[in-house]
Structures are given as C-alpha cells and as structure tokens.
Specification:
single chain, 284 residues, mainly alpha, 11 helices, transport, ABC_2_transport, transmembrane, ABC2_TM_bact-type
Length: 284
C-alpha cells in the first residue's frame, strides 16, 4: 500500500515595509486630504493671499510706491509681500497649529504607536506644505498677471532667484512651525498664540506697507526675523532692478537673505529636535 505525500505549499514571502520616503509620500497625500477637508483652513491659509491681493490692488492700484527714481505700481510692489506671507501662512502658521491640535487630540500619540517612522510623518507634513504653497503661489501669480497687469520675470536668473528663495523660505517656515508647535499649552490656545505673531510680523516686514516707509526701529526689529528677508528676496524677483534703491541697504542683499533664512532653518531644527513632543503636557 503506497502512501502519497501531499505537495508542500510555498509560503508567500512577506512584503517588505515601504521605505521612509515611500511612507512619507503616502503620508503627504493623507495630510493633503485632511487639509482640504478643513474648509476654514483652505480659506484663511490657501485663499488669504489672493483675497488680500485683490482687495489692496483694487483699492490702491493706481498709486505708485517709491520716488521718481524707483517708483513701481502698487500692485507690482504688493505682490512679493503676498507671496512671502503666503509661504509663511502655509508653512509656519499651518504646521504650528495643525501639529498642536494633533497632539492635543492624541493623534500624535496614536501615530507614534504605529510602524510609521517619525521622519515619514514630518516628510508628509513638509510635502503637504510644498504642494499647497506651490498651488497658492501659482494662483497668486496668475491673478496678478491677468487681473492687475503685474509683469512677470522675463529672465532665467530671476526665476532661479525665485526658486531658491521660495524653497529656502518654505523649508525655514516649515521647520519653525514644527518647532513652535510645542510652545502652546494646548490645541485650544494655539491660534491665540500663533496668529498675533504672524500678524505683527506681516505689519513690520513690508507685507502690507512699503518697508522703506516704516520707522527705522521697526525695520531693525523686522530684520531679525525671516519674513522680512523672504519678502525682500521676492521683491528682487518681481520688481525692476532700479527698485533696489528703495531697499534700506540700497541693494537686494541676496547673501544676507540666504544667511538669515539658513540661520533660522538651523535654529528651527535644533529647537525642534530638542523640544518636540508626541504627547500632551498632562500625558506624561
């Protein structure tokens, strides 16, 4: 009597877990969907620069900024500030608020208990910021060019300057937003802490007013913070070369712009690594 041996079933090999970059990209898509579901965030972060540009350019569009040697139409002068503040709102303010809220409702605590690498979580946040900021800026430039006849840069060097100022400013704002998210005591108080800081920086950094017209003490205070330099870097892209005479230093100061933004980027990284919390203060 012969015995038959049943064939051995091959055990399927386990699929390797996605890498840090792959999970980061997936997390960025999840973050983007969550952002779009928050209608108030979409309006006040994504559409805010477009709304302010439309209002200010309509009201003051016929005025010029500067003197006879370097005057430019108001809408053209106002655009760089709106690009800069859009970057700041989408990176610094958005991340500082959203991460604080996620910590307060235990979202961060639950994510920390999953296999999701911490690096992938932050890559997801930064990816969402880059996507929103790119769409926001593109819409702002399109609105300015078509509705208010603001001339766009015509040289490759100008667009190259725009690229490095935009990327460096977005990276700096994102890192600072992550670092600052640990400052508010709870998710309920975060808007009350972050929003006044952003508003003050907008008023003293040449976003709503011509920077050269501000009091000298205010200019000196603003020069410590990155928004002033981000706005100045954007003015070097969208304003004619002779408008550099309107700057406090008499030039665009690209070297100083890069140095200040990099310095704040490093400060944000150091502070963020040392102070970031996955749990609420009252959760041990």
């Amino acid at each position: 009597m012969s015995t038959q041996t049943s064939p051995t079933r091959a055990v399927p090999a386990e699929r390797p877990l996605p890498g840090v970059l792959g999970t980061g990209l997936r997390r960025a898509w999840i973050e983007m969907l969550a952002f779009l579901r928050e209608r108030d965030a979409v309006v006040f972060i994504l559409a805010y620069p477009l709304i302010m540009m439309a209002i200010f350019a309509t009201v003051f569009g016929q005025q010029d900024q500067g003197n006879a040697a370097g005057s430019v139409p108001f809408a053209q002068y106002f655009l760089p500030g709106m690009v800069a503040t859009g970057v700041m709102l989408t990176s610094f303010q958005n991340l500082a608020i959203s991460i604080s809220v996620e910590r307060d409702d235990d979202t961060l605590k639950r994510l920390r208990a999953t296999p999701l690498p911490a690096t992938s979580y932050f890559l997801g946040k930064i990816g969402q910021v880059l996507l929103v900021t790119t769409v926001q800026t593109a819409a702002l430039l399109l609105l300015s060019a078509t509705a208010f006849d603001v001339p766009m840069p015509s040289t490759a060097s100008a667009w190259a300057t725009f690229a490095w100022v935009f990327v460096l400013g977005t990276a700096t704002g994102s890192v600072l937003g992550v670092a600052f998210s640990s400052v508010p005591r709870s998710g309920k108080s975060v808007s009350a802490v972050v929003t006044p800081i952003v508003l003050v920086l907008q008023f003293i950094s040449g976003v709503f007013f011509a920077f050269f017209a501000l009091p000298s003490w205010m200019q000196q205070v603003a020069s410590v913070f990155p928004l002033k330099w981000l706005a100045q870097g954007m003015r070097s892209v969208f304003l004619p070369p002779e408008a550099a005479a309107l700057e406090v230093g008499g030039s665009w100061q690209h070297g100083a712009t890069a140095a200040v933004l990099v310095a704040w980027l490093v400060v944000g990284l150091v502070v963020g690594v040392r102070t970031f919390r996955w749990r609420r203060r009252d959760d041990g």
